[in-house]
Amino acid sequence: MELYAVRIFVRQWPEACEFYRDALGLKERFKNDDMGWAEYDLGGPCIGLARVPPDDAEGDALVGRFVAISLQVEDINSTYEDLKAKGVQFDNPPEQQPWGGSLADFRDPDGNILTLLG
What we know:
Elements: E1 5-10, H1 13-23, E2 28-32, E3 37-41, E4 46-51, E5 66-72, H2 76-85, E6 89-90, E7 95-96, E8 102-107, E9 113-117
Parallel strand pairs: 1-4, 5-9
Antiparallel strand pairs: 2-3, 3-4, 6-8, 7-8, 8-9
């Protein structure tokens, strides 16, 4: 068994796809607008975007939350500045952690929170 994808639920489909492809610079390896499914390459497992239909009340709980995904980058400060320049909304700048690494949380267009790890 191996990890294939981590799903992130979105309502703003076109904006979310553009965000993961253009702002984050992830390679789009699959996208089907009719299905509401897209995959963005992470060099192994992928981020899978799943569109939540507007009439799906249960889906509301899946959109706009902390998704517990940490994206490791070589230079967190440089990546942070580059993403900010592209309009990515950060909750905090990179902060050194007691264990030695640095973290910075950011949001996608639907308010889902991801973490940069450096």
